[in-house]
UniProtKB/TrEMBL annotation:
<feature type="transmembrane region" description="Helical">
    <location>
        <begin position="59"/>
        <end position="81"/>
    </location>
</feature>
<feature type="transmembrane region" description="Helical">
    <location>
        <begin position="33"/>
        <end position="53"/>
    </location>
</feature>
<dbReference type="Pfam" id="PF04239">
    <property type="entry name" value="DUF421"/>
</dbReference>
<dbReference type="Pfam" id="PF20730">
    <property type="entry name" value="YetF_N"/>
</dbReference>
<feature type="domain" description="YetF-like N-terminal transmembrane">
    <location>
        <begin position="6"/>
        <end position="77"/>
    </location>
</feature>
<dbReference type="GO" id="GO:0005886">
    <property type="term" value="C:plasma membrane"/>
</dbReference>
<keyword id="KW-0812">Transmembrane</keyword>
<comment type="similarity">
    <text>Belongs to the UPF0702 family.</text>
</comment>
<dbReference type="InterPro" id="IPR048454">
    <property type="entry name" value="YetF_N"/>
</dbReference>
<dbReference type="InterPro" id="IPR007353">
    <property type="entry name" value="DUF421"/>
</dbReference>
<protein>
    <submittedName>
        <fullName>UPF0702 transmembrane protein YdfS</fullName>
    </submittedName>
</protein>
<feature type="domain" description="YetF C-terminal">
    <location>
        <begin position="82"/>
        <end position="214"/>
    </location>
</feature>
<keyword id="KW-1133">Transmembrane helix</keyword>
<keyword id="KW-1003">Cell membrane</keyword>
<dbReference type="InterPro" id="IPR023090">
    <property type="entry name" value="UPF0702_alpha/beta_dom_sf"/>
</dbReference>
<feature type="transmembrane region" description="Helical">
    <location>
        <begin position="6"/>
        <end position="26"/>
    </location>
</feature>
<keyword id="KW-0472">Membrane</keyword>
Amino acid sequence: MREYLILFCRSVIAYFVLLFFTRVMGKKQMSQLTYFDYIVGITIGSIAAVASVDKDINVFEGSFSIIIWSILTILISEVTLKNIKIRLWLDGEPLVIINDGKVIYKNMKKARYNIGDLLMQLRDKDVFYITDVEMAVLEPDGKLSILKKAQKSTLTAEDMNIRKPKPGMMVDIVLNGNILSRHLQQINKDEQWVIKKLKSKNINNIKDVIFAGIQADQKMYVVTYDDSIEIDL
């Protein structure tokens, strides 16, 4: 019984120390989690967990370690507010991933950000065509900020009583140099058809294609290591 009482006291102490310094460090830990914040958060949480259950560690020593980590985090936050170079080194900087409907692959590679991540985050923002995007920026916290092209506003089309074509999802047909045969069956096409369309734009090697997809507007959108293009079907 005494052991459970000790464990209870240790947990309560570690909990309130962690709660206090989480509040002191501010809401950035929750709302804008960068690489640096991620590492700090995991480390402080691990220290609190060990201090609350490991009998070989003095709970006050564990709490003192939490205090040191928290104070260092607060001090570094103050420094980065005044020094932009240090802030960019710790948090990273925004990267333009799409500009005028074209994917900038070198920036994706720099961020170790693949085409699947891009498509997923676009769909999460109700964007199903890359060509609808004027600009997309990958923020330091990993979120994708999107600016749609002005002419793609659905409100404007409805206000002018313009009948828009039926929307649909893009069908992925090439991913990282590999033709997706099952997806081609959905649109009744074969691999030779894909190769022929790519050659029409001087893309002779399928391995040069990072991504290719068929849009509902009957256009193929292709991303290579050097450029992004549209091909009429």
